[in-house]
Design brief:
The structure holds 2 protein chains of 2 kinds. Chain A is α+β, with helices and mostly antiparallel strands. Chain A contains 2 helices and 6 strands; from the N terminus they run βαββββαβ. The longest helix of chain A is centred in the C-terminal third of the chain and has 15 residues. In chain B, α6 packs across α8 and α17 runs antiparallel to α19. Classes of the chains: A alpha+beta, B mainly alpha. Chains A and B meet through α2 and β6 of A and loops of B. Chain B: One of its GO terms (molecular function) is DNA binding.
Chain lengths: 107, 412
C-alpha cells in the first residue's frame, strides 16, 4: 500500500530550519528498510503558479491555489503494509522534521 | 417474550460480534461482514419460530452469514472483485482460532473499530454497531443524532478503514497498552452517555447503553484477563451501575450519594465489583502500579462498602485521590479530591482548594455545585445561592437541575 506523507508547516509558527541532517538520516533508514519510494522538499508557496486550461485558453496565476497559514512544505511517498506501520513511521517523521505530517493513502 | 424470542435475543448478544468478526477475517471487508451478519439474524427471526432453535445457534448463524456473504459477492461479481474471490477461495475453510486466545477475532474487530486514526465519535458508533450489534437507528437515538447522520458516520469510518488499510489484528505488545486505553475510553464514553444522561423521562435506551458498555467491557475482560485497567474499568462501571436506581428519585430528581437509599443498591453488582477491586489490590500489593480506572474503582469500592454515609472511610478515599492526582493532574480530579478533604478537614479547607480551580473549571457545573454546598455548610447563604444559580444555569441534565434547585431553595 502506498501512502502520501505531507509535511505541513505553519507560517506563523514555523518548524526549526536545522533538520536536514536528521531528515537525511531518516531517509537512509526508510530506504534500508524498504519503505522509501520518493521524497522531496518544496520551495516556498510564493514560487507556485496555478494553471487553469479548462476554458478557451490557459490562464496562469501567481501563487498557491489556496492561501493559508498552514502549507505543504514537502512530501514523502512510502510503501507500507498497512496504516499502523505508516503511522509509526509518520510519528518518527514528525519528530525528525519538527513539523506536523499528514498520512493519506493512494487509491 | 416467547422461548424462541429469548433464544434469538441471547444469540444476538452472544454471537453477533463473533459472527461479524469471523466474517471480517474471512472476507477482509467490514461492510460485507456487517450486512451478512444482519441478514443471518433476520433469517433466524423468520425461521426459528417455525423450524425451532438450532442446537448450536452460533454455528447456524455463522454458516448462514457465510452463505449470505458469498451470495452477495457472487451477485456483485464484477471485474474488480477478482481479488475478493481469490481471497475467498484461499480462505474457504479458515481454521477457527481458539476462543480464549489473544488473537480472538472479536478482539481484532474491537481494536479495528477503536483505531486511533478514527475520530472518537466514529469509534464509539462503529464499536456499538460492529461489536455491540446495535442498529444504526438505535445508536442514532442514543446519541441524539439524526439517523442519516449516524449512518454516514459509520459508513465513512468503514470506508476509511478500507481505503487507508487499517489492519485487522491485535496490536503488538509494545503498542497494546495505548491501544487498550483507546478501547476503554470508547467503552467509558458509551457508559457515561447512558449514565449521565439519565433524566426524569428516563429513556430505556439510555440504560441499554450502560448495560451495553458493561457487556462489552466484560467481553474485553474475558479476552484480556490480565489487563488491570480492563478489570478496573469493569469494576468502576459495575459499582456505578449498582447505584443506578437509587440515584434518581421517583419524582425525577437526582439523589446525591449522602441521601441515597443504600438498601436499593444492587448487591450482586457491588459484590462483583468488589471482587475485581480486591483482585487489583492484590496485584498492587505485588508491585503492579494501578492505573486510573483501578484507582477510581477502588474509590467507588470504599463508598459502596459503607452501609451509611457516616461510615465512609474518608481518609481512604483521600489517599486514593492523592494517588490519582499523581497519575492525572486534571482539575476535575482535584475537585473530587476536595470533596473528601471537606469530610476530613472541614469545608473551609476544601473551599480554599476548590477556589484555586476557578480559572480552569468556571464553565463546569459540578465546580459551582461543589462550591455551593461548601458555602452552605459554612453558613455563607448568599454566596451559596449565587453558586447554586451558576450551577443550575450550566447543568444540562434535568434530574440534576431539579436537585440543585431544591438545595438552593432550602437555603435561608
Amino acid at each position: 500500500m502506498r501512502y502520501l506523507v505531507s509535511v505541513i508547516d505553519d507560517k506563523s509558527n514555523p518548524g526549526s530550519t536545522d533538520r536536514q541532517p536528521a531528515i537525511s538520516a531518516f531517509n537512509e533508514r526508510l530506504i534500508a528498510e524498504g519503505y522509501w519510494v520518493f521524497a522531496g522538499g518544496l520551495a516556498d508557496t510564493d514560487a507556485a503558479t496555478v494553471i487553469d486550461n479548462r476554458g478557451e485558453q490557459a490562464v496562469f496565476s501567481d501563487g498557491p491555489f489556496v492561501e493559508s497559514k498552514e502549507y505543504l512544505a514537502g512530501v514523502w511517498v512510502w510503501e507500507a503494509p498497512d496504516l499502523d506501520v505508516a503511522l509509526k513511521l509518520a510519528a518518527e517523521a514528525s519528530k525528525v522534521c519538527d513539523r506536523k505530517v499528514e498520512v493519506r493513502p493512494f487509491q | 417474550m416467547s422461548d424462541v424470542e429469548k433464544a434469538i435475543t441471547r444469540a444476538h448478544h452472544e454471537e453477533w460480534a463473533r459472527v461479524v468478526a469471523a466474517l471480517t477475517r474471512r472476507f477482509g471487508d467490514l461492510d460485507i461482514a456487517e450486512e451478512a451478519a444482519a441478514e443471518a439474524f433476520t433469517t433466524a427471526v423468520e425461521r426459528w419460530p417455525a423450524d425451532g432453535v438450532p442446537p448450536n445457534p452460533g454455528a447456524w448463524l455463522t454458516t448462514t452469514a457465510n452463505r449470505k456473504a458469498i451470495d452477495r459477492i457472487r451477485r456483485e461479481n464484477k471485474r474488480d472483485d477478482k481479488h475478493r474471490e481469490a481471497q475467498m477461495a484461499y480462505h474457504d475453510d479458515p481454521p477457527a482460532p481458539p476462543p480464549s486466545a489473544i488473537d480472538d477475532d472479536r478482539l481484532r474487530l474491537i481494536f479495528t473499530c477503536c483505531h486511533p486514526a478514527l475520530a472518537m465519535e466514529a469509534r464509539v458508533a462503529l464499536t456499538l454497531r460492529m461489536v455491540g450489534g446495535l442498529t444504526v437507528p438505535e445508536i442514532a437515538r442514543a446519541f441524539l443524532v439524526a439517523e442519516s447522520a449516524m449512518g454516514q458516520r459509520i459508513t465513512r469510518a468503514k470506508a476509511k478503514i478500507k481505503a487507508a488499510r487499517i489492519p485487522y489484528r491485535v496490536p503488538s505488545a509494545e503498542d497494546l497498552p495505548a491501544r487498550v486505553s483507546s478501547v476503554l475510553t470508547v467503552l467509558l464514553l458509551v457508559f457515561n452517555e447512558g449514565y449521565l444522561a439519565t433524566g426524569p423521562d428516563t429513556d430505556p435506551l439510555r440504560h441499554d447503553l450502560t448495560a451495553e458498555a458493561i457487556r462489552l467491557t466484560r467481553l474485553i475482560r474475558t479476552l484480556l484477563p490480565d489487563d488491570g485497567e480492563v478489570a478496573g474499568l469493569l469494576a468502576l462501571m459495575l459499582l456505578t451501575e449498582a447505584r443506578r436506581t437509587a440515584r434518581v428519585s421517583a419524582g425525577g430528581e437526582l439523589v446525591a450519594l449522602d441521601e441515597q437509599d443504600r438498601g436499593a443498591w444492587d448487591t450482586a453488582l457491588i459484590a462483583e465489583g468488589h471482587r475485581l477491586v480486591r483482585e487489583r489490590l492484590a496485584a498492587a500489593a505485588a508491585g503492579v502500579a494501578p492505573g486510573r480506572y483501578q484507582i477510581l474503582a477502588a474509590i467507588n469500592a470504599v463508598h459502596t462498602s459503607a452501609r451509611d454515609i457516616r461510615d465512609t472511610d474518608w481518609s481512604q478515599v483521600l489517599a486514593l485521590y492523592d494517588q490519582l492526582v499523581r497519575l492525572d493532574p486534571s482539575p476535575i480530579i482535584a475537585l473530587n479530591r476536595a470533596i473528601a478533604v471537606a469530610e476530613l478537614d472541614g469545608p473551609e479547607v476544601a473551599l480554599a482548594a476548590v477556589d484555586r480551580l476557578e480559572h480552569r473549571l468556571a464553565g463546569y457545573h459540578p465546580y459551582h455545585a461543589t462550591r455551593a454546598d461548601l458555602l452552605r455548610r459554612l453558613g455563607r447563604g448568599q454566596e451559596s445561592r449565587a453558586a447554586y444559580d451558576k450551577a443550575i444555569d450550566l447543568a444540562g441534565n434535568t434530574a440534576e437541575t431539579a436537585y440543585l434547585t431544591r438545595r438552593r431553595d432550602q437555603l435561608r
